[in-house]
Amino acid sequence: MKKFTGAITALVTPFLENGLVDVEALKKLVENQIKNGINGIVPCGTTGEAVTLDLDEYRLVVETVVRESNGRIPIIAGAGSNDTHKAVIFSQIAKEAGADALLHVTPYYNKPTPKGLVAHFKAVADAVDLPIILYNVPGRTGSNVSAETTLRVAREVPQVVGAKEASGNLGQMMEIIKDASEDFCVLSGDDALTLPLMGAGGVGIISVASNEIPKEMSDLTQSALAGDFKKARKLHYEWLDLMNINFIESNPIPVKTALSLMGQIKEVFRLPLVSMEDKNKEKLREVLKSHKLI
After folding, report:
1. Which of 7, 192, 238, 289 could form a disulfide with 221 if both were Cys (CB 3.0 to 4.6 A apart)?
2. CB burial string 175-213: b at 16+ within 10 A, e below
3. Which residues of the chain have pLDDT under 50?
4. What does 249-265 look like in DSSP terms, one character per residue?
5. Which residue, among 5, 3, 49, 1, has the nearest Cα to 206 in the 3D structure?
6. Spatial CA neighbour of 107 closest among 131, 132, 143
7. Which element (helix H / strand E) includes 10?
8. How many other CB atoms sit within 10 Å of the CB of residue 226?
9. What is the pLDDT of residues 116-171, one digit of tens each?
């Protein structure tokens, strides 16, 4: 099983003005990420608007990212669903497309019990022989996965090798780190909590901000992994305003807008996501200007 550490980008999915996936822009994004030292890429996660992709588009995005990365970094395909059968189908497609691992958000809306979560992840693991990262994001799923439940899933489903923790609860994250096996990876799901989580023993971030600043997020995490928290702290506070402005509206609206302003993609979303409010877009523009990103 690979160990996933450092800065891993939750990559946006660029679209053309006719609504189709912008494959050429996607290839350029992947190359730019790798050139700037990113440690992994997650296509088709929340930031990639995966819930609005059909199966053919899902396959296209994962295949494109895998092909363009050409084995240089791990590709962890988002494959989650609140329907276990669909989660298995996405996982099978991701494996066929060449993904190295899977990111699975805990089922939203249904609110499964801990026993149900174990059964869900076991069904995916039985169907597809790839490492799995559990993604806990209560703000989107409507329910938190406790440290006890995360540890139970990891214990009963050995293919679950890590957790992306976006609960915002550092105490809960530390409970996981304290009691998990040594090779279990706890990754931040919030850019702004990367530094404190890594100080507590986390090993990296699945990042939104690294779409805009891959080198800087990689430098931050590599510094923390090396124990150079002076440098990691400096980078954290230098870029904290960007990390925060990325969530002034629902992700990925601000980060896709930023990449559009930076000339990397077109400013196109899929409903129900729409363009930013003018006042928020102006705030985003000012942050990008202050960092000379535009």
Report:
1. 7
2. bbbeebeeebbbbbbbbbbbbebbeeebbbbbbbbbbbb
3. 1-2
4. SSTTHHHHHHHHHTTSS
5. 5
6. 143
7. strand 6-10
8. 10
9. 999 999 999 999 999 999 999 999 999 999 999 999 999 999 999 999 999 999 99
Is 256 within 8 Å of 269 (Cβ atoms)?
Answer: yes
- Give the model confidence (pLDDT) of 146-155 as tens digits: 999 999 999 9
Q: Residues 202, 188: contact at Cβ < 8 Å? A: yes
Global pTM value: 0.96
The tokens for 101 are 């691992």
C-alpha to C-alpha distance for 109 and 126, rounded to whole angstroms: 24
3-state secondary structure of 112: coil
Give the phi and the psi of residue 184 in degrees, each rounded to 5: -80, 130
The CA distance from 224 to 194, in Å, is 9
Residues 18-35: b if buried by 16+ CB within 10 A, e if exposed? eeebbeebbbebbeebbe
Six-digit token string for 253: 């609206």
pLDDT of residue 3: 76
Give the pLDDT confidence score for residue 1 in this predicted structure: 42
Residue 2: predicted pLDDT: 45
To 10 degrees, the CA torsion angle through 174, 175, 176, 182? 80
Length of the chain: 294
Contact 186, 203 (CB under 8 A): yes
- The answer to whether the CB of 12 falls within 8 A of the CB of 265 is yes
CATH 3.90.78.10 fits 6-226, yes or no: no
Q: Which residues does the annotation mark as catalytic?
A: 135, 164
Alpha helices in 41-146 (DSSP H): 55-69, 84-97, 114-127, 138-141
